[in-house]
Amino acid sequence: MKTPSHNIRTNSTLQLIAVFALLLALFGSSGCQNPSPPRLTAEDRRSDVEFLAQWARDYHPCVEVASKARGLPDHEELLPKYMDLAEQAETNEAFLQVVWGYFTLIAASGHGYLLPEDMLLTYMRDSRRRGTKGLSDIPWAQFREAAYWAKLHKRSHAHAPFRINREGEDYFTGEDWSSKGKRIPGGSQIIRINGMSCSEYRDYLKRETALRYVAGDADRYTEPLLVMNEGPGFRGWDVSFRLPDGSECDRFVPRREGWYKDRSRFMNWRKENCECVELSNEVGYVRIKLMIDEYRESDRGKIRRFLEKSQGRYKKLIIDLRHNRGGSTFYTDDNLIRPFLNEPLAYKLISGVKRKFLEDDLFFVRSGCGFPLGAWETAINEVPPPEGFDPNRWIFYEINREVHPLKRYVFDGDVYVLMDQRSASATETYLDAVKRTGLATLVGQRSSGALGGYVIAPVVRLPASGMICRMEADLDVNPDGSFNELVGVRPDVELPPCPLPNRADRETLLKDAWIKAVIKGLSTPG
User: Fold this and answer.
1) Pick from 118, 136, 143: which is nearest to 35 by CA?
2) CATH topology of domain 262-342+405-451+488-521
3) 246-258 pLDDT tens trace
4) Reported pTM
């Protein structure tokens, strides 16, 4: 007789074998070698850019809306220019910059990014399991092409070995950094880069680096300031700092390849995903870094034990979701909604897609109206499109949700959720639910505008080059009639921008401006 532990070991072994097989298919039997550079003709390059435009025309819900509402250029008008740029590109690096530049306009709202290398295996596995049209039929060997472009895209970006916070037009170090035996304290102002002021350097980046191809808003990409690999032989930046004591210090800052990964102790991924801190006898604090489904039960247990220990004395609970880029809505429902309920919580959302998206069956469909019923969806009904949307091209649905209680946390006070412009995807789905139901008070800055809506953003492969990217598929309507992909979720109480704390301990957190505002007495909107 097979025991449960035997089954667990067998399943684990099978998973390891499956992962090894995928890696073998992705990188070849000789190991994780770098994939060979694709050889593309001028026509190949033109066709990939044209394919992007056609995909947006047929399926992307945001391109026309963003153009009208945000004043962005029309992607159709820019198509000839970018096809010509692609045709003239002399290297794969130059071609990638052109594609990325055009892609930034099409994917300016909602989910939109070239799939990074560490996500390729996940998507390959999930698409095979689900049979997702458009990806599951791609031969595994072709993922090596995607890995090539992912590596190339990563090399075009760079970052400093420390966090950078922007406050208006000024930039400050987010944590201590040491160089040549001298400590550059966190909070030091960056006053010059390579002899230029910060604004002059941003203009330089937009003029001389890959940012010159960005068709949308290039400013959003200069937010971290030290963000681009400036070309062959580039090693880093000559930076002038103004220290907190008023003195100035010049240092060479070596560049790191790729995108910045927050290394502050506040976001330390070697620690647990969820951190709980007692700020006072009446205020508890919970920090969640990502809505990771595999941590759902352990994080819920940690929050439950933390609140049980308080014996119900907390009058306020602060849930900090700043920089939380999302993950699983099962995590948010089971950890941040259901344990706070005494009775079922019902609310409605409205989401729309282009009809051609459903007609071409780009995503798995289970329900009769075209959307899959989720765990808490009770009904999905077609409703008239918002004003200005052609019903022959668009279809909108009202989605009814009813979330049922789970064993309640020992807490009967007010919940305050800290959010910022890096709160996104499944995190925004939670923020949207809070906004609709009044379950908590949202505090801070508006969210990213990448709601993990009803249709998961599909993965798209460019046919000639093999690049794989992810783009939005649905347009989600906020309670006030605005569109999430354009404005995000707005907080109930908006506060001035605030740097993320460096660490999640009581002393540091009590200095945070947003946390101090909550403790001093933000009132729940009534």
Assistant:
1) 143
2) 2-enoyl-CoA Hydratase; Chain A, domain 1 (3.90.226)
3) 999 999 999 999 9
4) 0.87
